[in-house]
Amino acid sequence: MQEDILSRPMSKKSQADQVIDLFSGLRPLARALNHTSPSTVQGWRICGQIPSWRHDEILRAARKAKVKKADVLKALNGG
């Protein structure tokens, strides 16, 4: 018997994808973090997690980019 695709639960976005979406994309987040290359942020997307030692940096970038702190905290904590 074949499983109905519609009956499967939708996969939840990763922590990294949630944060990246709040900043409207990979490059905008990298710019907000003053990274010259988006490769670090791309690495987070690939592994699905942002290292905890980067969280304060992301919160500072959110303040500059006018992204709601509550939304960022929620995403960082698994949303």
Architecture overview:
With 79 residues, the chain is mainly alpha-helical. It is built from five helices and no strands. The chain is globular, with a radius of gyration of 14 Å.
Can you give me a brief rundown of this structure?
The protein has 79 residues and is mainly alpha-helical. The protein has helices at 15-22, 26-32, 39-47, 55-65, 69-76.
Q: What percent of residues are in strands?
A: under 5%
Coarse structural class: mainly alpha
Summarize the helix and strand pattern as letters.
HHHHH
Distance between the termini: 35 Å
Secondary structure tally: strands: 0
Low-confidence stretches: none
Rg (C-alpha, Å): 14 Å
Shape: globular
The percent of residues in helical segments reads 40-55%
- Please describe the biggest sheet, giving its number of strands, its sense, and whether it closes into a barrel: none
Q: Average pLDDT, to the nearest integer? A: 89
How many helical stretches?
A: 5
What are the SSEs and their pairings?
Layout: H1 15-22, H2 26-32, H3 39-47, H4 55-65, H5 69-76
Identify the notable features of this structure and list them briefly.
single chain, 79 residues, mainly alpha, 0% strand
